[in-house]
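Notes from hallway chat w/ T.B., transcribed later so I don't forget. T.B. wanted the structure written out for a chain they're using in a teaching module, and asked if we could keep both sequence and structure tokens in one place. Agreed to drop them here.
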Amino acid sequence: MTKAEIVDVIAEGTGLTKLETQAVIDGFLATVRYALQKKERVDLRGFGNFYVVKRAARTTINPVSRETIKIPEHFAPVFRPSKELKKYINDYAAKSFSEEEPISHQE
């Protein structure tokens, strides 16, 4: 699902215009990015947590050229789903995949 599709679904479900919905989503994403930039944890109860981890420097090999590449130490965003989200997915995924139906956005 793309950002535009998310905007369409939320606008239809809430009665907001697509422009209003786009502004809310953009504001939400900007807030999450800002918090992660400050290395703050973003907790969305019932959905999951976004946080930043520090990745150590390492050496790897380019599989095509076989050249050794040094990857410097860096930070990476991480998402960890909540128990509720995992349960929701597991409860409905088997049914949805077996019947080839998408998971409902309204549940």
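Follow-up for T.B.: The chain has two domains: 1-38, 47-99. Might be a good example for the class.
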